[in-house]
Structure formats: structure tokens, C-alpha cells
Design goal:
This protein is α/β, with parallel strands linked by helices and 308 residues long. The protein is 37% helix and 12% strand. The longest helix is centred in the C-terminal third of the chain and has 16 residues. GO terms for molecular function: hydrolase activity. This is Thioesterase.
Length: 308
Amino acid sequence: MTKQYYDGPIVDAHHHFWEPAVNPHPWLADDVLIPFRYGDYTSIKREYLPPDYFKDAAKHHVVETVYIDAEWDPTDPTGETEYIHRVAKHFGAPNAVVAQAWLDAENAAELLAVQANYQLVRSVRHKPGGAATPQRAADGERTLMCDDRWLQGYAKLEKNGLHFDLQTPWWNLHEAKRLAADFPNTLIILNHTGLPSDRSAEGLANWHQAMTNFAEMPNVVVKISGIGLADRPWSIEDNRWIINETISIFGTDRAMFASNFPVDSLCGSFDTIFSGFKLAVRELPYEEQHKLFCTNSRKYYRTQNLKP
């Protein structure tokens, strides 16, 4: 098939909706500002619902979306799931959900069973924490992926037919590789490209090696998203190599594009980011581009068309 700039349907594999004035997101409260990889995020502490999202995405043919948990009050994890299903029923989006689940909680088994019973829930996310720098990881600091109680919760994912969305920097991927090996029937979906924030030659080489090692596991896939840089506008010049190397490492059957909106609006417009994705892969056969923008997200998240 003739190579061309992608103009087909998009299934956005990672985004958020929220209403900070009424929803219990601790990090979005007016008087809270947590350390954040993009710096000051005050500008996204605003209502963001499907009409806002589709206005941002207007230049691109987004047909379905995947909602990712947004760190709702951890004492009420199903509250967020209830909320986002009401949003989906009213607006026809999102079309799949990654729910909150604290895998080391005493009631983790019961919670996973409840979450899995919701119509749109396909996966859960629990950021495993751990070393904040590569050196601290090298010195032996570990994440919850090495915690026995957390692993007991993780073991319940397969029984409930749930995937696991993993958000962790690349220097913790050796733990994730072991997790994938120990639970081969649970799909791990790596969020935000392994967070390649260090763009020095050494940083990129280490990221590349960690991603290559992780990708050896057959039950892992990756979302290309969240690759903006603090205090720097999103550009294809900064990100083309990251995009193309991720696809080279995982292949076009195990990678998918995502906006991470409204969070990534801190570094670029929806059009800038998705036009950059399209430019980066325009030399690929069109059917391979379609996998990255649409087919893979539908396959892994089993999105539902909610429109009448």
C-alpha cells in the first residue's frame, strides 16, 4: 500500500476527564501542588469533560477513547469508576476504562472483583513508586513490584480478566520484566513510553536498553505518550527518535499512540502532539500506522461504541 500521512480513525489509548470542583482528586485541589514532571500544573486544574476533549482533538479523527484513573481519593476507588461510567453514558465517551486499584490493600481481591464487573473496565493502575533516580535503583531501592502483599493483589488480575497499566520510569523495568515472567497470562501495558525524561546520550542509551530488555516479554505492550519535557514546548525534533525507537523495539503490533490529555496540554496542543506522531511514522505502510493509531488500542482495551 502507498505510504502516506495517516488520516484514518484514532482510538486515544490514554486520557483523563475530571471536575476538580466536585470530584475528590487530592492533587487537583486548589491549595495543592505536588512535584510534577512537567512542573507547575495549575492550568489543568479545571473542568475537563468530553466536549472539552473533542474540541482539543477537533483536527483529528478520534472515534473512541480510553479513560485512565486520575488518582481519585484512594479511600473511594469505585467512586471514580461510578463517575466515569456516568460520563460515558451521557457523552458516549470514554469507551474503555482503566480503574484505580490499590493492590496492596487488605481488600484488594474484593475490590478487583468489583471493578472488573463494571461494563467498561479493562485494566487497573497502581503506580508502584520506588526509586526516583537511576542511581537509587542501582543502589537497591525497589518498587511495590517486589512487595509480597502487592504481588498477592497482582495475582488476582488474571482471575478477573484484567490487564495492568504500569506507570514507572525505565530504571524500574527490570522489576517489571520479572513481574511479566512470573505472571505470563496478565498483560502489562507500559504507560508513557517508560518516561524518557533524561535526553542526554547516556540517559537515552540506558532508556533504550531497559525498554529493549522489557520488550523481550511477550505479554507486554507500550503506549507512546507522556514524552513532553518540562518547560519546553512539545516538538517532533525532540521526540521523533523516542517514537521511532519505541516502535522499533516493540513492533507495530505492541505499541499505540495516546494523548495523555489534558495533562500533556502543559507541553503542547493536541494537534501538535498528534501531528507529530503522524509525521514520525508517515514512512510506515498505512496499515501499520492504522495499528498504532487505532487497531491496537481497540484490541487491548476492547473499546465499546456507546453512541446510539
